[in-house]
């Protein structure tokens, strides 16, 4: 039972990442009708916002330490951090340690700008083109973004640790009546799940309870009618693209301590997220979130040794298997709307 | 009624045309007169460096390319000569190879067998490369080695650690300087037993591809021989990035050691996940829980950051070797000096093995007096050398595997600088890691090099 609880928690974490990316994909598809294959790259860019913030906060200058030598036998040059020069050793170290949460402040405006630039600079030219063209151009864009990141940061993953206060694991089992150290779960993963839940709730609240959101939802249902009412729906949809980029970005920032960012991490998530969107139902925001958590949890359970022993290889195909079953029984996905992608 | 077209003049014309047509393709290739594929002209010779320039091992590929370029510079008489100064063979004199200036072309393997074969084929057919070298994956190495065997080209393997490269998939035209999974097991297991005791229960997570299988097999068999029990072995997808679902069951499985048969990004992520889940701080069976990473690389250690501290693994070579363990490992400092001066940081073991392979090829050609693969094969087989950083080394003729000391290393607790990532715990003597060519892990008695192929 303890293993099932751990895998359930793992599933919630994976599901959180899937749901956040799928939510952004669905917003873009629902508002602009664009199938955005560059969305995984936006998630990756978010993770690199954490890397960049960490590098900025740990910017240093060299001082020569004549008492030591480097690997070639020359006097050693030692890094001295500017934040420690300015704020003192302890405060400077704390600022560097909290780079990931601080990165959210950096990532939100950056990702909104990137989203605007993508939509105005490239994607708007493909609104009336077939979905296949949109997929090709956005997939190409994802490759370009990935290569740019590789050029500047290299191919290897870059460790971006969580703040010291959130390293280590919580003795989760104690709360459920288990013996100590039976169910240990990393603090940061619990933070990630909680953070995702807040972001998802905030996006839904924004769309549900604000005038702006209501107009956007009306535009998603009938763009022409909203336009005839004198509302510039295109501008609002552009904003929603920026919002979707920001959601993917903050999801990436917070994910950086879980899996060290690298230039192809967006591709890892992209295909899975599209499966999530299709299973949830194209254009359905609740469907995307529900499918994200469902598939995350199933994937986690399928990775348990006892399951792999019983069904070898199931861990590698479970998501696609579930997608096939759901699409055969419910072709529009779990909560898909009639007419979407059916023209 | 038909009329025959055969006349004496017609037959002679047809015969001459057919003969010319059959001869032409051979005549147009330089090898036509030399009897082997891509025989170089008198002024230059082209080598093919086939490394991952994109994909998850691109950083290692970049370091390999740096080493290759340095080797070419030294072969052509540039720079400080590097290991040409310390190499026990004195056949190379800095005038290229057999008087030809060394040129090179590069290819991108993308760490994919198909892409690697395509780029190797292009370098052989379009660029006239007489030797292919490189790699950063055993799957790639095995695939390219087979291609070179068919084409009649020498393959000097770069980074490949699977037993199969010089085991069941060995080829007469292929040579490996790097160590392998068996050697890792033979070197690491006694140190593990000494450090953690002989009463241990191990849980293996293994990358689901060729290298993972042979590494797991090697570590499992060598640790079990010393008394360890294997509790479970789980294959993980090569594409996995979050290993939490595989890590979470480990602590309550009865195991007290986790062995991560992972490499590159897989290892960085699985180790990070293991640390996140508290395995480094946990107790199991009344003992401190331990994590082992059989194959280390400096680039991986850098990627794993502080998570690597205190974790044991094995290496083919380390840039601190000569400074810490003396003149037996001469050549190390010469290479580090050359590489460090040119690029500003110490070379990785991938860079070292690729540099050495290039020099060994050039030396074999020079001693043989020919670029023909079978001549190179003869010159390299059972060749004993020294001064290349690993101590006395044998290129065994029966499987084309190099035999030399193996390092057991540990992630350093208090690094002095960003390059000071591991400490050398022990150097395992070559005798302890040597095995019979027909060892079961190497394909048994059925494994054979086959015949060398000059191509053409």
Automatic annotation (TrEMBL), chain A:
One GO BP annotation of this record: amino acid transport
Tree of life domain: Bacteria
Residue ranges of coiled coil: none
Record keywords, A-Z: Amino-acid transport, Cell membrane, Membrane, Transmembrane, Transmembrane helix, Transport
GO molecular function: transmembrane transporter activity
Transmembrane segments: 17-35, 42-64, 98-123, 190-216, 237-258, 270-298, 310-329
UniProt entry tagged with the keyword Cytoplasm: no
Record's bilayer topology term: Multi-pass membrane protein
Subcellular location: Cell membrane
GO CC terms: plasma membrane
Family the UniProt entry places it in: Belongs to the binding-protein-dependent transport system permease family. LivHM subfamily.
Name recorded for this polypeptide: Putative branched-chain amino acid transport system permease protein
Native organism: Octadecabacter antarcticus 307
UniProtKB/TrEMBL annotation, chain B:
Alphabetized CDD domains for the sequence: PBP1_SBP-like
PANTHER family: LEUCINE-SPECIFIC-BINDING PROTEIN, PERIPLASMIC BINDING PROTEIN OF ABC TRANSPORTER FOR NATURAL AMINO ACIDS
Keywords, sorted A to Z: Amino-acid transport, Signal, Transport
Keyword check for Signal: yes
GO biological process per UniProt: amino acid transport
Family under the similarity heading: Belongs to the leucine-binding protein family.
Region span, Disordered: 437-456
InterPro entries: BCAA_transport, Leu-bd, Peripla_BP_I, TAT_signal
Domain (Leucine-binding protein) ranges: 45-412
Protein name (record): Leucine-binding protein domain-containing protein
PROSITE patterns, alphabetized: TAT
């Amino acid at each position: 039972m303890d293993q099932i609880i751990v895998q359930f928690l793992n599933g919630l974490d994976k599901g959180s990442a899937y749901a956040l990316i799928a939510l952004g994909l669905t917003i873009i598809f629902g508002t602009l009708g664009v199938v955005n294959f560059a969305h995984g790259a936006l998630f990756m860019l978010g993770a690199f916002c954490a890397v960049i913030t960490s590098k900025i906060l740990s910017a240093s200058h060299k001082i020569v330490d004549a008492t030591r030598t480097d690997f070639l036998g020359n006097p050693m040059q030692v890094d001295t951090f500017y934040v420690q020069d300015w704020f003192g050793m302890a405060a400077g170290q704390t600022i560097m340690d909290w780079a990931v949460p601080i990165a959210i402040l950096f990532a939100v405006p950056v990702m909104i700008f990137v989203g605007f630039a993508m939509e105005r600079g490239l994607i708007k030219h493909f609104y009336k083109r077939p979905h296949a063209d949109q997929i090709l151009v956005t997939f190409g864009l994802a490759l370009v973004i990935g290569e740019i990141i590789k050029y500047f940061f290299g191919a290897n993953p870059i460790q971006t640790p969580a703040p010291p206060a959130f390293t280590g694991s919580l003795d989760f089992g104690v709360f459920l009546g288990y013996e100590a150290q039976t169910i240990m779960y990393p603090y940061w993963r619990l933070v990630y799940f909680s953070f995702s839940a807040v972001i998802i709730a905030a996006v839904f609240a924004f769309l549900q309870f604000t005038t702006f959101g209501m107009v956007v939802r009306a535009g998603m249902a009938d763009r022409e009618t909203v336009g005839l009412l004198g509302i510039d729906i295109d501008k609002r949809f552009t904003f929603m693209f920026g919002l979707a980029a920001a959601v993917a970005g903050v999801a990436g920032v917070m994910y950086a301590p879980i899996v060290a960012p690298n230039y192809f991490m967006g591709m890892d998530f992209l295909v899975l997220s599209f499966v999530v969107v299709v299973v949830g139902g194209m254009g359905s925001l609740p469907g995307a979130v529900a499918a994200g958590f469902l598939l995350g949890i199933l994937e986690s359970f399928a990775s348990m040794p006892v399951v792999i022993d019983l069904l070898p290889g199931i861990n590698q195909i479970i998501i696609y298997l579930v997608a096939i079953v759901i699409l055969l029984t419910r072709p529009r996905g779990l909560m898909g709307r009639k007419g979407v992608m059916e023209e | 009624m038909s009329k025959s077209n055969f006349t004496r003049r017609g037959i002679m014309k047809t015969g001459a045309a057919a003969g010319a047509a059959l001869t032409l393709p051979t005549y147009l290739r330089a090898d036509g007169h030399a009897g082997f594929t891509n025989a170089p002209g008198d002024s230059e010779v082209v080598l093919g460096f086939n490394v991952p320039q994109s994909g998850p091992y691109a950083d290692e590929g970049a370091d390999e390319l740096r080493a290759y370029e340095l080797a070419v510079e030294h072969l052509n008489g540039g720079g400080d000569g590097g290991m040409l100064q310390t190499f026990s063979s004195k056949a190379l004199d800095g005038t290229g190879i057999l008087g030809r200036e060394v040129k090179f072309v590069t290819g991108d393997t993308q760490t994919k067998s198909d892409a690697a074969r395509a780029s190797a084929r292009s370098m052989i057919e379009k660029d006239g490369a007489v030797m292919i070298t490189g790699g950063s994956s055993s799957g790639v190495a095995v695939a390219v080695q087979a291609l070179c065997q068919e084409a009649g080209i020498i393959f000097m393997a770069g980074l490949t650690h699977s037993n199969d490269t010089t085991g069941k998939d060995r080829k007469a035209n292929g040579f490996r300087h790097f160590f392998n999974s068996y050697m890792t097991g033979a070197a690491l297991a006694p140190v593990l037993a000494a450090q953690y005791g002989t009463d241990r229960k191990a849980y293996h997570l293994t990358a689901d591809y060729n290298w993972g299988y042979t590494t797991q097999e090697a570590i499992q068999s060598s640790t079990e021989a010393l008394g360890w029990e294997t509790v479970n072995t789980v294959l993980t997808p090569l594409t996995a990035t979050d290993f939490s679902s595989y890590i979470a069951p480990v602590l309550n499985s009865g195991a007290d050691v986790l062995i991560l048969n992972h490499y590159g990004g897989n290892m960085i992520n699985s180790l990070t996940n293991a640390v996140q889940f508290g395995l480094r701080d946990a107790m199991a069976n009344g003992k401190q829980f331990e994590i082992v990473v059989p194959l280390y690389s400096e680039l991986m250690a850098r990627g794993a950051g502080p998570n690597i501290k205190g974790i044991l693994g094995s290496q083919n070579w380390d840039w601190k070797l000569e400074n810490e363990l003396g003149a037996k490992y001469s050549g190390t400092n010469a290479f580090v000096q050359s590489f460090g001066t040119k690029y500003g940081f110490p070379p990785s073991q991938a860079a070292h093995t690729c540099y050495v392979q290039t020099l060994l090829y050039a030396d074999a050609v020079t001693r043989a007096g020919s670029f023909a693969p079978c001549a190179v094969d003869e010159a390299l087989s059972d060749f004993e050398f020294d001064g290349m950083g690993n101590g006395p080394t044998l290129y065994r003729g029966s499987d084309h595997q190099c035999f030399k000391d193996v390092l057991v290393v540990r992630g350093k607790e208090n690094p002095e600088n960003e390059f000071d990532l591991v400490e050398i715990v022990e150097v395992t003597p070559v005798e302890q890691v040597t095995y019979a060519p027909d060892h079961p892990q190497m394909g048994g008695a059925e494994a054979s090099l086959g015949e060398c192929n000059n191509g053409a």
